[in-house]
Automatic annotation (TrEMBL):
<dbReference type="Pfam" id="PF08372">
    <property type="entry name" value="PRT_C"/>
</dbReference>
<keyword id="KW-0812">Transmembrane</keyword>
<dbReference type="InterPro" id="IPR000008">
    <property type="entry name" value="C2_dom"/>
</dbReference>
<feature type="transmembrane region" description="Helical">
    <location>
        <begin position="369"/>
        <end position="397"/>
    </location>
</feature>
<keyword id="KW-0472">Membrane</keyword>
<dbReference type="InterPro" id="IPR013583">
    <property type="entry name" value="MCTP_C"/>
</dbReference>
<feature type="transmembrane region" description="Helical">
    <location>
        <begin position="262"/>
        <end position="295"/>
    </location>
</feature>
<protein>
    <submittedName>
        <fullName>Multiple C2 and transmembrane domain-containing protein 1</fullName>
    </submittedName>
</protein>
<keyword id="KW-0106">Calcium</keyword>
<keyword id="KW-0677">Repeat</keyword>
<dbReference type="InterPro" id="IPR035892">
    <property type="entry name" value="C2_domain_sf"/>
</dbReference>
<keyword id="KW-1133">Transmembrane helix</keyword>
<comment type="similarity">
    <text>Belongs to the MCTP family.</text>
</comment>
<feature type="domain" description="C2">
    <location>
        <begin position="57"/>
        <end position="178"/>
    </location>
</feature>
<dbReference type="Pfam" id="PF00168">
    <property type="entry name" value="C2"/>
</dbReference>
<keyword id="KW-0479">Metal-binding</keyword>
Length: 453
């Protein structure tokens, strides 16, 4: 329902500066308070396969020079360059009654979104398009979605892939198995992509410590029994780690195992007597290093989270059932208050579980770039705490916090540790970003060869 509106003359605003505007609403009471910053948009482009920035030697050298280690402090927001070749798809789902589809492809990086043309009446379309993006956060995820164009209705979903930028192997043409909307399992068809990403590692590291860019368009959270149960199980597993640790410590006090309790007692006396503050980051550093050597030696005991994977698949089936039930009954739409509370609980469980999983995945080297960054940070903290008295560190921190709003009134307050952890994928995201292996028997080109044979 239309309420009111107002207009902003952007030509009167200076660039690269935050303006606080209080605008009177034209057709209603009250006013609107906005913070507006005019800045250059991310460089995005679309072209044919014949026009390729990285194949032009001169352009490639310019791009490499632009993101070289020597240009660390030149435009800190410009972290890297991404080129995506959308070549073709094979064996897509038939969305029309004729047994064909009218597929087109949408390529998204954060809030940048580009589309290919539509190939009509074809299950094996060739697009041969090149997309380029400026990378503002190397921890972003590239999303490529295939839709079926429908002039009378909204486009039908055919398949999707989500590719973290840090997992990309430059210059390699790969067949990605298309997944369902929840990215939990395969759907029909594969898409062929060739992706290149060039970035400045120092800029990328600094960008990790500031808040993530929020998507302008996000799907509204829905109430799901399966999702609620999954989030509860995930949180329970995180809490049980702490509970089991508490039980283990308590068993040492109870002398359930005398040798273990004696060893714990001696360790306690040694650590407390020699404790210094710098030992806290040092212990975390040693834990990260220990896990790294376990991984490279092949003794890594990490296992795929089959529980989360199974729950994701069940959730997809549950959502399909819920959709059918809602069409028949629709009673849940009448109890908005209960639904809102349940969605809030569902989201809180997800946040708590994700927080614990992100900490675990940092130490498990799920994203090596982030684990190496944690090692560098812990080394710095260990040295700082060893050489600088704690009161000076607290003094600098307090002065920074108290004067931050005075120095930059519109700055968004943030916590660098939480911003870092927000880049580490949770167990659910690890499953969603996992590549599926293509089935060679599903390729139409293979079938043609077999028929000719």
């Amino acid at each position: 329902t239309f309420v009111s509106r107002c207009q902003v003359d952007l030509s009167a605003l200076s660039r690269e500066q935050t303006h606080k505007l209080e605008l009177q609403l034209e057709e209603g009471e009250g006013h609107l308070v906005l913070l507006v910053t005019l800045t250059a948009s991310a460089t995005v482009s679309i072209s044919d396969l014949s026009v390729n920035s990285l194949e032009d030697q001169k352009e490639r050298e310019e791009i490499l020079k632009r993101y070289s280690p020597l240009r660390i402090f030149h435009n800190l927001k410009d972290v890297g360059f991404l080129q995506v070749k959308v070549i073709r798809a094979e064996g897509l789902m038939a969305a029309d009654v004729t047994g064909k589809s009218d597929p087109f492809c949408v390529v998204e990086l954060n809030n940048d979104r580009l589309l290919t043309h539509t190939v009509y009446k074809n299950l094996n379309p060739e697009w041969n398009k090149v997309f380029t993006f400026n990378v503002k956060d190397i921890h972003s995820v590239l999303e490529v979605t295939v839709y079926d164009e429908d002039r009378d209705r909204s486009a039908d979903f055919l398949g999707k892939v989500a590719i973290p930028l840090l997992s990309i192997q430059n210059g390699e043409q790969k067949a990605y198995v298309l997944k369902n909307k929840q990215l939990t399992g395969p759907t029909k068809g594969v898409i062929y992509l060739e992706i290149d990403v060039i970035f400045n590692a120092v800029k990328a590291s600094l960008r990790t410590l500031i808040p993530k860019e929020q998507k302008y368009i996000e799907e509204e959270n829905r109430l799901s029994k399966q999702l609620l149960l999954r989030n509860f199980i995930r949180m329970k597993r995180c809490v049980m780690v702490l509970v089991n640790a508490a039980y283990y410590v308590n068993s040492c006090f109870d002398w359930d195992s005398p040798p273990r309790s004696l060893a714990a007692f001696v360790l306690f006396l040694f650590v407390v007597w020699n404790f210094e503050l710098y030992m806290i980051p040092l212990v975390l550093l040693l834990l990260l290093t220990w896990n790294y050597f376990l991984i490279i030696s092949g003794k890594d005991n990490r296992q795929r989270d089959t529980v989360v994977e199974d729950m994701l698949e069940d959730e997809e089936e549950e959502e399909d059932k819920d959709d059918k039930d809602s069409e028949k009954k629709g009673f849940i739409n009448k109890i908005y208050a209960i639904q809102e509370v349940c969605v809030s609980v569902q989201n809180i469980l997800d946040e708590v579980a994700s927080f614990g999983e992100r900490i675990k995945n940092t130490f498990n080297w799920t994203v090596p770039f982030l684990s190496w960054l944690a090692i560098v940070a812990l080394c710095m903290f260990t040295v700082i705490l060893y050489f600088i008295p704690l009161r000076y560190i607290v003094l600098v921190w307090g002065i920074n916090k108290f004067t931050k709003k005075l120095r930059s009134p519109y700055a968004i307050d943030n916590n660098e540790l939480l911003d870092f952890l927000s880049r580490v994928p949770s167990d659910v995201q690890v499953v969603q970003y996992q590549e599926l292996k293509p089935d060679p028997s599903h390729s139409p080109y293979k079938k043609k060869k077999n028929n000719l044979g």
